[in-house]
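Fold this sequence, please.
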Amino acid sequence: MRLGTKTLWLGAFGWIAGLAGQEYVGSQACSTCHQAIYDHWTRSAMGRSMSPAVSHLEKAANEVTVRSEKLRRDFAVFAEGGALKQRESGDGFRNEHALSWAIGSGANGLSFVVQRGDHLFQAPLSYYSKIGKWELSPGFDFADYGFNRTIPAACISCHSGRPRPVAGANGQYASPPFAELAIGCENCHGPGHRHIAQKGARAAIVNPARLPAARADEICMNCHQGGDTRIVQPGKTEQDFRPGMRLNDIVAIFRLPRSRENARDTDLLEHHESMRLSQCFSKSGTLSCQTCHNPHASQIDYRAKCLNCHDKKIGAATHPARTSDCIGCHMPKRNVEVIAHSALTNHRIIRQPGQPLPASAFSGPDLLHSNRVEGQALPLLTELQAYGEMADRQPGYLDRFNRLLDQAARTAPAHPLVLATLGRRALRANQLPEAVTHLQAALKAGSKSSTTFEDLGDALGRSGRLEDSAAVLQQGIQAAPFTAVLYKALALRFIQLKRYDQAKTALEQYVERFPEDDFVRKLLQQVSGPR
């Protein structure tokens, strides 16, 4: 049975039509009738997924400095004036911002959010609980982000209750950015207004325990199955998902196929797929996320969960000294490769250490659609985006991507995504008139991507249309004010136009937003002369 975009499963499970249009009320409203559950939830990891940064002042009671030899600068975290702050300093510059929110429950650590106007950014230092120390945030040891690593809606949607991102923008949010800070009741049960209005009527709220197991698992998959790319379906946003919907109606999750030469388990946001690769899943026919997890509980006796199925086969005689901790051996935690000092539970339940992946873990060369709905074809635009993203990482997908783009050019020639993608392909082939035509049409059709402005500015500049290029880049800066490449390109255009005062102004604006760029900062000092 296929669900419409705003229709939930009806009938035996009591789901109601039009859930997508219901109003949210916030978790506090649920506590009136469900106080015990609410109290347990607030102590759980998800119930503490985000918090005000000032609630962690004690972690920086004394200023802590972290030196990056690679970047040749210092990062510091400190408490000042009742606020938690971070600072970046180097040769000739100092950049300091107050921290607004902490991301994470603290089980592995905490990262922090900086708000600059209506944009949110990740702070350069994170607190790592395992070692009890501040170090560079994940990814900051590979790239020079400063305070300019935007937090996209796709990321914050799984760490917070109800974020309010601006559709089509990268890192831009409404005011206030969050309607509810931490993950709350309605993330799993759906909007609660009608449930309260109907005095607790069961049919007016989603109870995952009464959903089919696969559908309930999709609530968990929304945040616990990352894949190699996640594509929001045409006309949707991450915020459109409601418990009880098919996840694929909102977002399609893809991953690269495994090769037997590199057949490793991964623990970072691949929990559902790992579970499906377990014999417990394939042989029981009933294993689901809720078999072991009670989202309302702050602590769970996982051994008891295991013994619900295995008590007739497993006892002290067969597992001496290990019966108190089943998951310690069969679901061991492993370090997360891309996040220092962090570990996650391996959700592929193994019988013994080193157990190889089953044959079902391997497949053909196409991208794997993790939450595919049997008999439901993917929208062409979704497939185009997936293969477009993967073609940059795996050139073997480039032919497939180009075929999909040609097909989209015939069937959806006026779509801004198609126009922008055609323009970029033409630009890379140095087909400048074609690139300009497509990219101008993409902006006219509503594209808000900074990449479209960048590509059109480049195509116009290379075509000798310097004035037009400068105008487009200025429009891009207004639409995406924290896109560094637009400022650099604009300064170059003004230099080519011999409008040096405007070039200097563009560089000043760049350095004001991105002071960590040593080269541009020193270049500006040279052209400005002695003060």
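The chain has three domains: 19-207, 258-362, 413-528. DSSP finds 20 helices and 18 strands in the chain.
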